[in-house]
Amino acid sequence: YFRIWIVNLLLTLVTLGLYYPFAKVRRLRYFHGATEVGGAPLSFHADPWKMFRGYVLVALMLAAYTGAGQFSATAGAIAFLIVAALWPALWHSSMRFRLANTGWRGLRFRYTGTRGGAYAVMAVPLGVAVLFVLVAVLVQPDLGPIANPDNPPPPAEPSAWQVALAVAPGLVMLALMPLFFWLLKRLQHSNYALGPERTRFSAGLGSFYGLAFKTGLLTLLVIAAVVALVVALGALLGVFEDRRAGAAFIGVGVVIVSYLLVFAVAGGYWTARLQNLAWGHTASAQLRFTSRLRARALAGLWFKNTLLVLVTLGLYFPFAQVASARLRLEAMTVVSHVDPDELAASAAQADEAAAGDAAGDLLGFDIGL
Predict the structure, then answer these.
(1) Judging by DSSP bridges, how do beta strands 192-194 and 40-44 pair with one another?
(2) Which of 98, 116, 193, 207 is the most buried (most CB within 10 A)?
(3) 83: Cα separation from own chain's centroid
(4) Which letter does DSSP use for residue 292 in this model?
């Protein structure tokens, strides 16, 4: 995989990013081909030129949004609303494209979710984004005319209501994050299909809020431990004799170490528990899934990968990708109540009827899922 990765990286840089869809197809074909289910490898069949159209469209949309924001705030807001209105439809098409181009034993998977479901899920983060924009407008101070432009008055202290408004969107985002993940996983895991088999999702909203609470508590404990460690180390080295140097040492040390440990420990815990929760509550009529990914193993692997990527100046990155994929995939089990040959035969008959429907919506959009 290192050979594939280094060629992809160089060609993407040389072409100023235009090679990225082709690089992504090569990467996905490698990882799919290296993943076996029941002794048969997965496959990926997407045409990179079709994916290229989707990337060009998304790039043009982002460029138009950026350019409109430079022109005026109103134009930027209008461009943001247009991009926000189209994004769920692009995400839906991307899901259908990815699944329809993923195969197993000559069969193709399907995604049966609707665009309406995508808009319902994406309404949560889009609503928070709109709230951020409204708050940014409301908390702007009213400076009025400046009597002496050469000697402007000092900036006024924000009022209590302005501070509350500035903090409110962040609190709303934290409160709604478990709801968004639950809606997203429910939409995805209720609409995976292979032949006559279609999955259903049985996890409740409360389990996602419980996982988010435990992850947040773990994050606070990690940060508190890092602060205590950095302060103790600073006292041991005597850096607090100079207050300014001591404050800088604590600030930089806490930020760097906290980022590494929170990413590895809290991020690993969230990722492992979310995988186990989502796939452990996913099943169809004849299939069910189990996941026993250990949070400690994933956190340790992520911490090791991060250090080795830094030490090798990024050259270890492809090895880190392979190690992470292996750990997460080998924790998964698919349990079938019918013989795999019988399942493949029934899926092949259903695929003949579904092929036309899938092909009709494959616009070539893949926005990086």
Answers:
(1) unpaired
(2) 193
(3) 18
(4) -
Instruction: Let me know the angle formed at the C-alpha of 139 by 133 and 144, rounded to the nearest 5 degrees.
Output: 120
Spatial distance between the Cα atoms of 65 and 59, rounded to a whole number of angstroms: 10
Within 10 Å of residue 81's Cβ, how many Cβ atoms? 14
The DSSP symbol for 159 reads P
CA–CA separation, 175 and 197 (whole Å): 35
CA atoms within 13 A on the CB side of 96: 23
Structure pTM?
A: 0.82
Strands (E), the chain: 36-37, 40-44, 102-104, 107-108, 110-111, 192-194, 197-198, 200-201, 282-283, 287-291, 332-336
pLDDT per residue, tens digit, the chain (369 aa), is: 999 999 999 999 999 989 999 999 999 999 999 999 988 999 999 888 888 887 888 788 778 877 776 777 667 777 777 877 888 888 888 888 889 899 998 888 999 999 999 999 988 888 877 777 676 666 555 545 555 555 555 555 656 665 666 677 678 888 889 999 999 999 999 999 988 889 999 999 999 999 999 999 999 998 888 778 777 766 666 655 655 655 565 666 666 777 788 888 999 999 999 999 999 999 999 999 999 999 999 999 999 999 999 999 999 999 999 999 999 999 999 999 888 888 777 777 655 444 434 433 444 555 544
Instruction: Residue 126: name the closest of 84, 70, 160 by CA.
Output: 84
Is residue 120 within 8 A of residue 183, CB to CB? The reply is: yes
Q: Are 27 and 342 in contact (CB under 8 A)?
A: no
CA dist., res. 291 & res. 163, Å (int):
43
Give every CB contact of residue 115 below 8 A, 6+ residues apart in sequence: 88, 89, 92
Distance CA 116, CA 29 (A): 31
